[in-house]
Amino acid sequence: MVKAIRLLGLVVLILISSIFKPTTTDAFPVEITLVQSAVAKGAVCLDGSPPAYHHAPGFGAGINNWYITMEGGGWCNNVTTCLDRKNTHFYNWNKIKVRYCDGSSFTGDVEAVNPATNLHFRGQRVWLAIMEDLLAKGMKNAQNAILSGCSAGGLSSILHCDKFRALLPPTTKVKCLSDAGYFINAKDLAGTQHIETFYSQVVATHQSAKNLPQSCTSRLNPGLCFFPQNVVAQIQTPIFFVNAAYDSWQIKNILAPGVADPHGTWHDCKLDIKKCSSLQLKTMQDFRVQFLSAINGRVDSVSKGMFIDSCYAHCQTEMQETWMRADSPLLEKTTIAKAVGDWYFDRSPFKKIDCPYPCNPTCHNRIFE
């Protein structure tokens, strides 16, 4: 893992924080920081290398404001899939991009290391070691702080939201943002609980149960506590959800995974929603109903917000074109950036759900190769 990270050298850090001030540039290079001190604590990546993050320092009035975003990238649910991934990939605020290197949304903690595989399931330790490093670098003095993430990182921001709040002084304004992290427990085309089985395997492989919200694990099987619908209602820290009701990753991997579509009937539809048949669109509309059922009632607190559009997309806060550009997706004439900014600064709440596809002409629908 460390070799792959060093080969990257510099990354492009998206200026998500333009909710604070519009910017004319989308990205700039930020050097990587390896947390070498974490190794002695056993807080290491799958391959035993030190965790890493990118830090663009804040300046001026934003020097004590922090925006932490957790990188996404799916999960590994057993030794084989974890071996496969072992070697992979706000204006003046401090901006942090935490590299994802554990395959459990930073929830794993297994002491033993199998010498045959040298896999280290230590995601929770990695997360805590990076947070401690950031606290020592000034985050302990934060006036404002946001924990965010996209996809598996969006799930991380949900599962760690209250823990992040607990690390910071009570005077710090702390909120969380989950982008495309609201994965639902739904049956696939074949009527099986494919994603439920997969998540249960992730939790078992990484021994994540002890690091999942106790408010959930005290009443449900730990594997079910990987699903936001079972934990969100108990989150005390303000949190905002950005999600497509037709999330392209969920359509491809929860509703219509390859195992449930052996003849590839859904292949073209999953690549481009415009190629879906009327029957496939009906199935996707039913999935939207399930998604809305899984989130409605869980975001009823005044401290929670949501922007649920009807786009065929996955992760919409990491690119200017879907974040706050002139042609970005809109809900009630509001961009995602404005909705999140107004909510974070308590200017106005935002809880909006789009009408069904294809009603929203501002959508940037994903087209896959």
UniProtKB/TrEMBL annotation:
It is an enzyme of class 3 (hydrolase). Pfam families: PAE. Its EC number is 3.1.1.-. One of its GO terms (cellular component) is plant-type cell wall. Keywords: Cell wall, Cell wall biogenesis/degradation, Hydrolase, Secreted, Signal. It is found in: Secreted, Cell wall. One of its GO terms (biological process) is cell wall organization. One of its GO terms (molecular function) is pectin acetylesterase activity. Residues 1-27 form the signal peptide. Its main location: secreted. The keyword Cell wall biogenesis/degradation applies. Hydrolyzes acetyl esters in homogalacturonan regions of pectin. In type I primary cell wall, galacturonic acid residues of pectin can be acetylated at the O-2 and O-3 positions. Decreasing the degree of acetylation of pectin gels in vitro alters their physical properties. Belongs to the pectinacetylesterase family. This is Pectin acetylesterase. It comes from Cannabis sativa.
